[in-house]
Amino acid sequence: MKLHSVLRWAVFAVAAFVMNFPILATLVTALKPPGEVTRNPSLWIESPTLENFAIVLTVSDRLNIYAYLFNSLTAALIGAILPILLCFPVAWALARRGTGRAVLFPLVVNLRALPLIIFAIPLYIMYATLGLLDTRVGLGLILAVVNLPLAFLLIVNAIQAIPLELEEAARMDGARLPRILRRVVLPLCRPAFLTTFIFGFITAWNEFLFGLMLTTQKAVPVTVGASFFFATSGGGVQWGVAAAVMIVAALPPLVLGVVMYRRIGGSMLGGAVKG
Amino acid sequence: MGTVELDGVGKSFGEVEVLRDIRLDIAEGEFCVLVGPSGCGKSTLLRLIAGLEEVSAGRIRIAGRDVTALESYDRGLSMVFQSYALYPHMSVRENIAFALETARLPRAEVARKVAEAARMLRLEPLLDRRPSDLSGGQRQRVAIGRSIVREPAAFLFDEPLSNLDASLRAETRIELAALHRKLGTTMIYVTHDQVEAMTLADRIVVLNAGRIEQVGPPADLYERPATEFVATFLGAPSMNLVRGAAAEAEGAETLGIRPEHLRADPSGPWTGTVAHVEYLGVDTIGYVDVGEIGRLALRLPGRAPMVPGETLTLGYDPGTLHRFRAGLRIG
Amino acid sequence: MPRHTRRETAVLAAPLVLFLLAILGFPVILSVVYGLSETTFQTLRSPSFTGLDNFSRVIADDRFWQAAWFSLRFGVITAVLQCALGLFLAVYLAPLIARHGWTVAVLIMPMVVAPAMMGLMYRLSLHEFAGPIPHYMWQWFGWSPAFLNARNVFATVVVAETLQWTPFAFLLLLAAYQTLPRDVAEAARVDGTRPWRLFWKIELPLLMPTLWIALFIRFIDGFRVFDNIYTLVGSGPGGITTSMSIYIYEAFLRQGDIGRALAAAILLFGAAFTLLSLAQRLGRRRRAA
Ligand SMILES: Nc1ncnc2c1ncn2[C@@H]1O[C@H](COP(=O)(O)OP(=O)(O)OP(=O)(O)O)[C@@H](O)[C@H]1O
Ligand SMILES: [Mg+2]
């Protein structure tokens, strides 16, 4: 019994270390002064410093991290909230009246399985025509498409879990559909909305391909911005600064994920099993 | 104004006909109880009246107005569900006020009515709690409170007491009767429980397999059941049915006799062996195996000296017999 | 359904349906038009119709088939590795997790980091001068492989993808494992079943549905891989890490061959769609059985 417990901790430690190694290595690199990185690539930091973060967080002509972060935030908020707004009414119709069971639901859920690149090119052409290229709204809209499948699934599941009698009671209380939806169904879906939002936000923030293809300057999200940083420095990458950029870029979803990990596990199962 | 008239109402779910040609006039202020075996269509009938299901045939009139095509929110009824269906995200106060706010009553009026209902149902200390923090009996009272504030044309109840324990059920039953006396509003009440049916009802409607078997005041149904089904459905233990020669001798196909009308009588016609005895305090139930006739239940007051294995001869007063032919009462 | 109910339903469905029509319906039409035309970025608004020419060019392109083969292999191998590792971690660590829930948060960190960032982080970790991994290899073994050369790069991207997404399989299987009916395991244990046998004979069969789902999702995501490979090695030395997504991306943005890129995308869509229908039919049969 005791031995097993020790072994389990050991397995956990190894798994956590190996899987998180790149994050750890990046964090360590970000905390090293510029000279130290290539001289001492080990995980031991000789003279820890926040210098790299100071450089990253200062606006310069090479790098304005705030612009990237703002682009990511705006696009991710659109990409996380819009699916909830779009899916809620139709999810109710699906759960209670079977609307869209044959076509709409499978169609949306299957979007999850399609390679995103398929949408990227026609969208590029469409955005070019509509003037949505390199805009935060344009990026947010397509991120909303990416998040639709899971949002639809989670919200349908949540509505199905509400006892039908509650809605019937509201009807007996004289409420028509809009009021039932607003006062009874919507408040009871709040936990599902929160989960959907968290998933959606993380996914949207982390999205790269659309950012790469549909933005060039004004609306570049931080995932793409960080990769620019690697490429543009050519031979002499400033490893410490690059690492600090990545840490900053990875931090919001990381924090959200770590704080909300309980929510993520359970609903992933719900989302996957029905889909 | 609170009359409910059902005129040839029928309901089918797909191929399955659940209710057929239900005709029933419920008077203003009447307490009408629907009883019947599980699956006979009681809840369905109530939901048709409520407008939660659409009728497949017939018309429904409430307060003289044809509401067949109206949605439930336009029928002016209120309903207490078996599960209570309280809104879990609202406080007791908000639960009770919901219908009034839906009707856009002025705020002061809402507050006044909620306070009045809370006082009547002793809910005042609970007004700011959530349903999840209430006991079963308290939830039940909130559900009733939520339905009375609307001052509906009629109340609908679907087995409202079935989730309560025995003593609370008895208590709430009495409160319900008092509430009905006070409000004088029409009530339509579905139950499985015979005691509720007998004690609460002005009239009982016995449903069986989607049809009405008999309608009448509790005493009528108990004393003069129109069919064998009603005869055996009401009363516990249920009425003894005797067929064959013994029944023919009394001029019936089936003879019915209630357990309390049998007595130990050495000169009686039926002799058998006591198979089982149940002492219930107020009375004693004996089960006696009588040869051809089968097993008869008899009820004797107090603690009757009966023991399993004993031989017993049973007699009755001919005036207490019920006679049936082809399932229907004769005479 | 009465008329007003139908109208209500239409209003409820309208936002999503209109959104989908606008943002996907229109592009579908565009895809077909441009897929059948010759277009460059200069002639974006005046495509010239060339029939199935783009498709025959794609089908004749060896690199397209190499990319397809890469994606398929990559998807299958990473999915199997992730699910095996994830299953092991979920089942073996479950008792630990039951008492120390926070351990889950540590294990799922990789999957909430953007794959593109993760690619860059591996690039840093594996860098021959700045990376800790080669550093320790040299220090301990006096030797370090060139992780990103033609021989090793496939293994490297497979490992990187696996380590990032094993948490996904782990989390899914853990959730399923935690909801397994306890009484079954308890009954078996009372009957004298050893843990190993309990796992093979009782728990694994009960986990099978979730395991299939995890395999399927991981395969899909591996098959359509782009971000982490692109930021780690691009299309790799000699283009050997060109996945389907990278192939299409390069045809489009690097080579400006819009027609060919779209034709490849349409073919990919067809393949994905076929696969999906197949998987769903299989899933339905399994559930029915
Ligand atoms: N929505 C429905 N679809 C199909 N059949 C239904 C539906 N609702 C009820 N039924 C069927 O109609 C019959 C009557 O059901 P109902 O709920 O009215 O019975 P009940 O008398 O209330 O029974 P109980 O005493 O068990 O509550 C049952 O056979 C039931 O299976
Ligand atoms: Mg019922």
UniProtKB/TrEMBL annotation, chain A:
Entry superkingdom: Bacteria
Membrane topology field: Multi-pass membrane protein
TM region(s), chain numbering: 65-95, 102-125, 137-159, 180-205, 239-261
Annotated InterPro entries: BP-dep_ABC_trans_perm (IPR050901), MetI-like (IPR000515), MetI-like_sf (IPR035906)
Keywords assigned by UniProt, alphabetized: Cell membrane, Membrane, Transmembrane, Transmembrane helix, Transport
Pfam entry (one): BPD_transp_1
Keyword NADP assigned: no
Record's subcellular location: Cell membrane
Principal location listed in the UniProt entry: membrane
GO terms for cellular component: plasma membrane
Family: Belongs to the binding-protein-dependent transport system permease family.
Protein name: Carbohydrate ABC transporter permease
From TrEMBL, chain B:
UniProt superkingdom: Bacteria
TM regions (residue ranges): none
Cellular component aspect of the GO annotation: ATP-binding cassette (ABC) transporter complex, substrate-binding subunit-containing; maltose transport complex
PROSITE patterns named in the record: ABC_TRANSPORTER_1 (PS00211), ABC_TRANSPORTER_2 (PS50893)
Keyword ATP-binding among record annotations: yes
SMART domains membership: AAA
Annotated ABC transporter domain residues: 4-234
Keywords carried by this UniProt record: ATP-binding, Nucleotide-binding, Transport
Gene3D superfamilies from the UniProt entry: 2.40.50.100, Nucleic acid-binding proteins, P-loop containing nucleotide triphosphate hydrolases
UniProt-recorded name of the protein: ABC transporter ATP-binding protein
Classification lineage: Bacteria, Pseudomonadati, Pseudomonadota, Alphaproteobacteria, Rhodobacterales
Automatic annotation (TrEMBL), chain C:
Entry-linked InterPro entries: MetI-like, MetI-like_sf
Keywords: Cell membrane, Membrane, Transmembrane, Transmembrane helix, Transport
The keyword Magnesium is assigned to this record: no
Domain called ABC transmembrane type-1: residue spans: 68-279
GO cellular component: plasma membrane
Alphabetized SUPFAM superfamilies for the sequence: MetI-like
Gene3D superfamilies named among the record's database cross-references: MetI-like
Record's keyword annotation contains Transmembrane: yes
Primary location class: membrane
GO biological process: transmembrane transport
Organism domain of life: Bacteria
Subcellular location per the Swiss-Prot or TrEMBL entry: Cell membrane
Transmembrane segments: 12-36, 72-94, 101-122, 153-177, 198-217, 261-279
Membrane-related topology note: Multi-pass membrane protein
Coiled coil: none
Family: Belongs to the binding-protein-dependent transport system permease family.
PANTHER family in alphabetical order: BLR7065 PROTEIN, SPERMIDINE_PUTRESCINE TRANSPORT SYSTEM PERMEASE PROTEIN
Name this polypeptide is given: Sugar ABC transporter permease
Organism this protein belongs to: Histidinibacterium lentulum
